[in-house]
Inverse folding.
């Protein structure tokens, strides 16, 4: 009986955690107050505002150019790490990833470290059904925008001071 009294609250907490995680995985989670990025998600150093990667509708700042390749190789790892710390990257979306139309900053979701804006509530629901598809679209938008801008000098791949 004592074991039951001990395990019952534990099982309840576990069930709530699983339910909350399932909602987050679908993109249905509510938004929370997030902190601005001040540390590199890869090395943990202070960010350099001239060194960044634009990925999945977000601008992620780094401490040095060498961190860019690691972020691009496994973005989910670093987005989830930032989400766990309550950090928001700078959103650079130009349009809704679902409709391709201008978005409404009041219609948004925080999905595994990414803040994503939508044109309609229906678009937000559609995103939640297949987030990977729409994150890929955000990446295509970022690449298209970069292709239309003047080329930047290639970064030096070293980790200065690391």
């Amino acid at each position: 009986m004592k074991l039951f009294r001990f395990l019952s609250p534990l099982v309840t907490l576990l069930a709530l955690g699983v339910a909350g995680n399932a909602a987050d995985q679908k993109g249905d989670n509510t938004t929370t107050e997030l902190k601005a990025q001040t540390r590199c998600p890869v090395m943990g150093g202070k960010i350099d505002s001239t060194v960044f990667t634009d990925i999945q509708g977000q601008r992620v700042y780094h401490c040095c150019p060498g961190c860019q390749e690691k972020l691009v190789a496994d973005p989910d790892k670093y987005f989830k790490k930032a989400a766990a710390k309550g950090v928001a990257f700078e959103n650079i979306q130009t349009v809704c990833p679902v409709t391709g139309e201008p978005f409404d900053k009041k219609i948004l979701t925080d999905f595994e470290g990414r803040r994503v804006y939508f044109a309609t509530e229906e678009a937000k629901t559609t995103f939640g059904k297949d987030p990977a598809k729409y994150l890929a679209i955000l990446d295509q938008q970022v690449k298209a925008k970069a292709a239309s801008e003047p080329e930047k000098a290639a970064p030096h791949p070293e980790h200065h001071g690391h």
Notes: The radius of gyration is 18 Å. Residues 3-29 have pLDDT under 50 and may be disordered. The chain has one domain: 33-148. The helical segments are 2-26, 67-73, 75-84, 121-129, 131-148.
